[in-house]
Amino acid sequence: WGLLLLAATLRATAAARCPAACVCDNLRAHVLCLNGSLTAIPDTIPELTRELDLRGNSFMVIPARAFLATPYLTHLDLQRCKVERLEEGAFRGLGRLVYLNLASNGIVLLYQESLDGLSSLQQLILEGNRIEEIQPGAFGHLGSLTVLDLRANALVYLPDMVFQGLQVLRWLRLSHNALHVLGSDAFAALPALRRLSLDHNELQALPGEALARLDGATWLDLGHNPITYVAEEALAMASLRHLFLDHASLQDVAPDAFAHSPQLRILDLRENQLQGLPPLAGVGGLVRVSLDGNPLLCSCLLRPFHKWLARARVQAEGACAAPPTLRGRSLDSLKSPEMRCSHLWPPLNPTAPPEQPRAAGSRQCPQGCVCSPDFHHGSCENRNLQEIPRGFPEDTRLLDLRRNPFRTVPADAFPGLKELVSLHLQRCSIRVLQPGALRGLESLVYLYLTDNHLSSLAAAAFEGAPQLAYLDLDHNAFTRVPAGTFRLLPNLISLHLQHNAIGELAQGDLAGARGLRWLYLAGNAIRHIAPAALAPTKMLEKLQLEGNHLAEVPTAALWGLPALSELKLSRNPIKHIGDSAFLPVASSLQHLYLDNMGLERISPHAFTGLGPKIRSLYLESNKMSNIPDMSNFTGLEILNLQNVPFHCDCQLLLLSRWINKLNLRVGATCGSPAEAKGLKVKLSTTFQTCPGWGQGKAEETNPNKTKAASKSSKKKRSGKSPARGFSKSRA
């Protein structure tokens, strides 16, 4: 009877503390305050409450420390509460919370500390707000988050590293926003991500560079975006199995568009503007291609794809839209002899009669080409044309002339195309762009000249194309950067010169490229970069030099690049990195690639000046046995030390401790001594005989003491002095 009386007393006490207009279920530790007129978080909620449902109230602002009185909460629902602002520290004290629903509110901005204190949170629902901007670091304290739902907001742009800190995130939902620009590192540091939803946005091109960071993602939804073309090798996602590109505006897909996504199983291309597809290379595991709702032209041009389907045993869903005799026939019911070219108009047969005069009001299009009035595209791909055709509609915005043996682009080759934005001249055997070749293309932004035979360029070739921003000259025959070419291109942002035969970067080579932000020079034979070679490119953000013949870090050439955030030196024969090698760009550098170089030694002061700004560091597949102190690299999201033969003796003890404290998978293993070979550095027992090993273990088992000591040392240490040893871990 005494126990029953005590229980009744406790229930009565708890009930007395239940806020007005709320329902408290004390047995289940649930509190519901639904659809009321609450304007502030009640302060009389029972302390032991685990699930709190506040849907349909009017809080407007969630103030700092609003839930300190309920530290045992695991589930919190704040849907439809008219919340417009989350103050910094709003959820501080909710270290047990695993589910937070803030859907259907009016939140506009996520501040850096808005979500501080939610170290156990697994699901965060922000659907249906008005979020326009996410400040860097907003998710930095959510190390346990597995699902992030940002659907139906007002996001236009995703900056680099915006999801920093989400190490175990598995599903990122960004559908129904207005995204049209993604930073190349927007999805960096998401090693556990498996599913990405980007459907119903405003992406006009497949964001291949940003997506390439997602090595483990298996599901990608890009449906309902105005993407018109999937280019060569556009998607490099090693684990991708399901790709949705339905209800887009696709006109064409390159044969090797998915060659670097070898695990692809399902490809959904429904409801696009595709008249056909080429055989797809590099997708040996593909099971199904969905083409329903496309205007498929079942002519002889579709035969290669049809034969490939049978040979590769790929199921295709779709039906012919033309010619009339085959309209409605499913692809799998067709036989090759039925797919004839006599149904094409204009005819492809050169002996066919001349084209008849067009009726008044009809649109012009060169014979043998296809022009789309709805999407303002023109295409004469792979028609064996010897000369660039003329007569495209004046409102053409994308012109695809790939795979024709033009050899030369003459002056005034594209008359009347003042609205042309994108010009594709890949694989056209081009050796010469004559002066004035692009004259009149005053709106041209993208020019693709890859896989040709160009060895030089005259600046006058670009006369009349002042808006050109993206110039792709990969896989040509350049032995040096075409000096002087860029003086007529004041808006050039991105320059691709990869896989040529360039031997050096000389002073003056980049004269005039003052707005250049991305310079790609991988796969050349560059041995030397003059100290002033990069001086004109003061806005440069990315410099990719991997796969060249550099024997040392080009430190002198890096001065005067205050915006450089990414430097790739992978696969250069650099054996030694000296002191202060990256000091010229220390204030801006975020991503550094030093992998696969045969690197034997890194000077103890090689990384002088680098510190918290570094987000990713790649050192894998080298030959050094130790690395310098990096304890002040507190912002690291990616550190790769795989295939480095570390010598696991007492000199490596500090590195071992530092690695143990990092919340990262670094892949560091011992190469010697023999008893430790092959073991992970963090697990090696060779350190147990080292002086100070016991002290380190004591700190690891007594974290409170370690934190107190760390705070004390921070007070004593000057902010300008670098931390010594590998004792400081990332928060």
Automatic annotation (TrEMBL):
Region (Disordered) residue spans: 691-731
Signal peptide: 1-15
A Pfam family hit: LRR_8
Domain LRRNT positions: 17-51, 364-398
Coiled coil: none
InterPro entries, per database record: Cys-rich_flank_reg_C, Leu-rich_rpt, Leu-rich_rpt_typical-subtyp, LRR_dom_sf, LRR_TM_domain-containing, LRRNT
Keywords: Disulfide bond, Extracellular matrix, Glycoprotein, Leucine-rich repeat, Repeat, Secreted, Signal
Major subcellular site: secreted
Localization: Secreted, Extracellular space, Extracellular matrix
LRRCT domain mapped to chain residues: 294-342, 645-691
GO CC term, one of those recorded: plasma membrane
Protein purpose: Potential negative modulator of chondrocyte differentiation. Inhibits collagen fibrillogenesis in vitro. May influence chondrocyte's differentiation by acting on its cellular collagenous microenvironment.
PANTHER family, A to Z: ANTIGEN BSP, PUTATIVE-RELATED, INSULIN LIKE GROWTH FACTOR BINDING PROTEIN ACID LABILE SUBUNIT
Family, similarity comment: Belongs to the small leucine-rich proteoglycan (SLRP) family. SLRP class IV subfamily.
Assembly information from the UniProt record: Associates with collagen and binds to collagen fibrils.
Protein name (Swiss-Prot/TrEMBL): Chondroadherin-like protein
Source organism phylogeny: Eukaryota, Metazoa, Chordata, Craniata, Vertebrata
Gene this chain is encoded by: Chadl
